[in-house]
Amino acid sequence: MRSDTSQTIYRNDYTPPAYLVDTVELGFDLDPARTIVASRLTMRRNPDSERAEIELYGENLELVALRMNGKPLGKRDYRIDGNLLRIANPPQDVTLEIETITAPEKNTTLNGLYVSNGSFFTQCEAEGFRNITYFPDRPDVMAKFTVMLRADKQKYPVLLSNGNLIEEGELDDGRHFAKWEDPFKKPSYLFALVAAQLVCQEETFRLKDGRDALLQVWVEEGNLDKTDYAMQSLKNSIRWDEERFGLELDLDRFMIVAVGDFNMGAMENKGLNIFNTKFVLANPRVATDVDYAGIEAVVGHEYFHNWTGNRVTCRDWFQLSLKEGLTVFRDQEFSADMIGTASGRAVTRIEQVRTLRQAQFPEDAGPMAHPVRPDSFVEINNFYTVTVYEKGAEVVRMLQTLVGRDGFRKGMDLYFERHDGQAVTCDDFRNAMADANQRDLILFERWYSQAGTPIVKARTQYDADAKTYSITFTQSCPATPGQPKKLPFHIPIAVGLLGADGRDMPLGQDGANGSTAVLELTEETQTFNFTGVGEQPTPSILRDFSAPVVLEYDYTDLELLHLFSHDSDPVNRWEAGQRLAMQRLLRLTSAVASGGKLELDATFIDAMRKILTDDGLDPSFREQALLLPSETMMAEQMSVVNPQAINAARQFVRATIGTTLRTELMQQYLANMTPGEYSPDALSAGRRGLKNLALSYLAAAPDADAIELAQAQFDNAGNMTDRVAALIGLIHAGADSAAPALQAFYADFEKEALVVDKWFAMQAAAPATTVKAVRELMKHRAFTLKNPNRARSLIFSFCGANPAQFHAPDGSGYAFWAEQVIALDALNPQVASRLARSLDRWRRYAPALQGQMKKALQKVAGGKKLSNDVREVISKALAN
């Protein structure tokens, strides 16, 4: 926890560091209670700075010694202001030697150097290195690191750090050492060390330039059989980056280490990626298809950071999306290319759009709304958000849409040619794209500087005599905190026109005779005209979700059904089905709230039947098309949110589908079996996904046959995907056999931490799970608040995935939330601040719920030892 008071930091106040660091030598004598850290920094005055003072950040440190150019410094030679150690008027060139002591075993924040399960690990992004030693801990200070690790050999036989191992050996008293050298300059947030009892899977991998690199995946004893997929994903990532972007691995070795206690998914430390076990460990017995996909994406993401984040890094933390948005886009493209089919790419795109609507659009509309490149922050950890990551990736994707795939590659090449080894800004990336393609992208900068989700309204006009068709777009963007008015964005809108036969029509004039036109909306209102249109078309607007906007167009049911049946763009075909479903879900929600009759029309059911039974469509696409919008997405469409009515309406639709389409669902369940040895490939995963969606609909309107089917699948499942799906079906159906099945599941997997996380999460998200039930689960011997994965599995799942119970009218869910935020904040502020976001949009709910939410928010706000992480979230929620 930071010891200073809340202070807002502004992007416009950026000043270059007064001193640069050329080399860093670090020595660690590792001991859980008392680790001694010695550092030697060679520094020089920065010619771009007008200041003449060395500033070193340090938190939770005991300063033992400080020497400058060989001379010990007394307390009169420096001053410590909060977390800053200042040395006034130093010489032009400085060698600074610092000795500090830290206590890793007491570090429950998992930020800096900490002990997990008896082993040493680090997490230094964003500002964790200052918990290790005093240092100019900012991303624009890049230096070459040499690291000496010393530790007890029996307890910590494996000693790892960044770069290449250059020396290792024995010491006295049963200790040993390892010396590592990173040949590339890096900021301190990319520093890493590991000291542990680990085993590794390793392979020698031939790079495109003919060099051999050593690849290692390090895990705890007993987990080696779960590393194959992570290793294969790493090899695929290296090869893909060589082929797609011409970027090669620049080290002799590349290491991945899995740790059970970790705040994030993974961290891209140069050459030594430290991962949450969730994104490394997998075999068919313990991992689902979703787990396998997550491992591939995250392994790719962290490896791709080797260039987009490490070789070229951020000037300051306001530029975080420079590396994260770009690298998310790269891992999305990698995952899509690994599938290799058009339908597979479409499904990954649909999943990305779903994430945006479910998580990022609500963030844009809430009190924590911020631009992709924020203007200010109190605690930078609060800005590792879906806006910076996923919306940032959409911004990069729009650039590729505007300049084309080849043009995007040219822009990337110029970006690395200009900035390799530098700490730069989002503007530098955009300028490289513009210059490489001779494009004016000045207006595009507003995607980085303006918060909120733009709203694009479309209206159309057809002239049968002239055979012309026009689309007029009007854009606006709602006010967000600190930004009451917005200027027009540069929005690429991909458009197609469908004829009565369901085929794409050729687009003349503004469509340049293709079947899909990318129209560039840069003004508040613009009209685009198409010629040679021989009949009234159905417009397919925003194909492939070409921009992260809300499209408002008054489609009729007939038009949506036409698109849902025929659109050649799979994303818009899916979108048409989502619009059909959302219209009905919202009507039913109103009926529930008013006590009206609940009915679902045959037109919608028939449309669902048609998609379900169309064997010409990929199973994975059919699964996505048949998934209803989530309760969160429904809430976003309501001016006053009624969680219980939303839940009741959605459950009614699910039950109606399960009852009305029972025969067809059973047919698809049987047709999409995947007998034989388990494989996580896209086709097999898609078949399992459709089969298990059919099971979930059958269990939503349970009869004896549906319960028997779910029980049989649970008993006989040969993989974790099918077993979890069956258990969820039993739980949600309220089957008598659910409790014994839960007991059996836990008994089978109680030694598999990641599976126990699933066990908690399934129960937390079940519609019948109350606050009281969650409190009972917290008493289970396997539960602990100290492990972020375990806290997320139960507490976060209840607060985020069980809205009807979390928003119980008596306010018990909010009281529970307040207790857990306060308890987590005392242990791990980063995890606590993410949980704090659960109530940041409290003003959108009915007055009775608002009062209960405000009371809970005020309880947290009144905490005397509140971290900056949580204080920033709570204060913004109460203020906006």
Automatic annotation (TrEMBL):
* Any GO MF annotation of the entry: zinc ion binding
Q: Which UniProt keywords apply?
A: Aminopeptidase, Hydrolase, Metal-binding, Metalloprotease, Protease, Zinc
Domain Peptidase M1 alanyl aminopeptidase C-terminal positions? 559-879
One Gene Ontology biological process: proteolysis
Q: Which residues form the Peptidase M1 alanyl aminopeptidase Ig-like fold domain?
A: 452-554
One Pfam assignment: DUF3458
Name of the protein: Aminopeptidase N
Q: Which organism is it from?
A: Massilia eurypsychrophila
